[in-house]
Amino acid sequence: MNETVKRLLDANREYECSGTFIGDVSAKRREENAAGQKPYAVIITCSDSRVVPEAIFSAGIGELFVIRTAGNVIGDSELASLAYAVDHLHADTVVVLGHTRCGAVHAALCGEFEGVVGVITKRIKQAIGGETDAYKACVLNVKDGVCTIKKEIGREDVTVVGAVYDIVTGKVLLTD
Asked: CB within 8 A of 148, min separation 6: which ones?
């Protein structure tokens, strides 16, 4: 486990125990980051309003580069955003963060593939195959995201890990 992943998990334990947001969002921090950002990690996560990466990892302004998409599905736009964070901002750690009780995973499990949302649910279904357990499906979806990133980014100097956030307990567990 690299130091950045350890830092994220340690910060998550703080959040899990305290239940409060302790990231620095002060005027001083805003001023310090006004000229540019240098996030220490990239978090690709679901758009779900119950998942707040900055709170989950006790991070303040400028610390995380967050990419959100329903079901944490990774397509061309997410890969381009990730490439920006890695190539231009020099982030060297990426976390694909799924979560329990994910509506997009649930929709894929229920066979909801119609309309525009079908773009997301079909991709999730492809990732989870015949899995019917919601938690296991979430983990498979995260692992698919990790594989996609590793394949498309293809950089040995970037650590890519998968994790699942439990929306009830606040705990983050690595998938590998």
From this structure: 74, 79
Please state, in angstroms and rounded to a whole number, the distance separating the CA atoms of residues 172 and 165.
Answer: 4
Structural domains in the chain, CATH included, are: 3-174 (3.40.1050.10)
- Helical (H) or strand (E) element with 45: strand 41-45
Contact indicator for 29, 61 with CB cutoff of 8 Å: yes
CA distance 16 to 172: 9
Are 100 and 72 a contacting pair, CB within 8 Å?
no
pLDDT at site 128: 97
In this prediction the pTM is: 0.93
**Phi, psi angles (nearest 5°) of residue 45:** -140, 175
Instruction: Look at residue 104 and give its three-state secondary structure.
Output: helix
- Quick check: helix, strand or coil at residue 53? helix
Number of Cβ within 10 Å of residue 106's Cβ equals 16
* pLDDT tens-place string over residues 147-170: 999 999 888 899 999 999 999 999
CA dihedral 159, 72, 131, 118 (to 10 degrees): -140
Nearest C-alpha neighbor of 51 from the set 103, 110, 123, 124: 103
> For residues 71-92, b (16+ Cβ closer than 10 Å) or e, as one string?
bbbbeeebbebbeebbeeeebb
